[in-house]
Design a protein that fits this description.
By secondary structure, the protein is α/β, with parallel strands linked by helices. The chain has two domains: 1-31 and 217-249; 52-215, Rossmann fold (3-Layer(aba) Sandwich), CATH 3.40.50. The chain has helices at 3-28, 38-53, 71-87, 102-118, 137-150, 166-175, 187-196, 209-212, 217-245, and strands at residues 56-62, 96-99, 130-132, 153-161, 179-184, 199-201. The longest helix is centred in the last third of the chain and has 29 residues, at 217-245.
Length: 249
């Protein structure tokens, strides 16, 4: 293993240790609260409205392959899918998840099954609610577009890795009058959703969605680790600048 690989492994171990520490810490000293994110607040409201009016929620997981670094956003999307499935378990129309990768679709089906099993509503599980709509970015979007008209979609959560094709999904959702929360790890997609999405999440807000939806203690702890890592990075940059100015570096 080269030096960069060793450094990466150390960072992963440190972050994992900090997450375990904060899980224990938060149990003894519960955090006072998290800063409000209006987009997530509106998503929670949209879930409740969908349950009330008998419409359906659509979760788009993107088309990233699970054996690439881009899968992180898709895995977060699966967590969001699980929380939405649990929250809407009393609805007549369970949520539908679309993706552009076969393995991701299988995981979405398993996530739905686990969510319904958790709330003792396994009879709601339907494997066809976790779908592959295309195996390339644009074929995935082309296959997902009919979902808006055929499934009575009232709200969308687009959480995953997307490219320019995201604009087609956002445009269709807007024409359908459906609420849309969108988040992606792709800079191209972030530029598009900032301009076109009703409720965009930019940057690290992507990694906060699960915690804000109450996915579990580790998700909440990860936010605190991100905050401390951010301050440590800022401190390192400032210290490096000072050392450069005084001639040490």
């Amino acid at each position: 293993m080269d030096l960069s690989g060793i450094a990466g492994l150390i960072i992963v171990i440190v972050f994992a240790g900090l997450m375990v520490f904060f899980v224990v810490w938060n149990r003894r000293f519960p955090p006072r609260g998290m800063r409000p994110i209006q987009a997530i607040h509106r998503l929670r409201r949209a879930i409740g409205l969908a349950v009330e009016d008998g419409s359906r929620l659509h979760i788009s997981l993107g088309s990233a392959s699970l054996n690439t670094y881009q899968s992180a956003s898709a895995l977060l999307g699966l967590s969001v899918l699980g929380r939405i499935a649990e929250a809407s378990s009393i609805s007549d129309r369970p949520p539908v998840a679309t993706s552009g990768d076969g393995a991701l679709a299988v995981l979405s089906q398993d996530t739905l099954r686990s969510a319904y099993d958790k709330v003792n509503a396994l009879d709601l599980y339907d494997p066809t609610r976790g779908r592959v709509t295309g195996l390339t970015p644009f074929s995935y979007v082309a296959g997902a577009l009919p979902v808006f008209s055929d499934e009575q979609i009232s709200a969308n959560a687009l959480v995953g890795n997307f490219g320019p094709e995201l604009a087609l999904l956002l445009d269709t959702a807007d024409k359908a009058g459906a609420f849309t929360l969108a988040a992606s790890d792709s800079l191209t997609a972030q530029g598009i959703l900032f301009a076109a999405a009703e409720e965009p999440l930019i940057g690290e807000e992507l990694f906060a969605i699960s915690a804000y939806l109450g996915a579990g203690a580790f998700h909440t702890a990860s936010l605190r680790v991100q905050d401390y890592a951010r301050w440590a990075l800022i401190a390192g940059l400032v210290l490096g600048s000072i050392l450069k100015l005084v001639g040490v570096l």
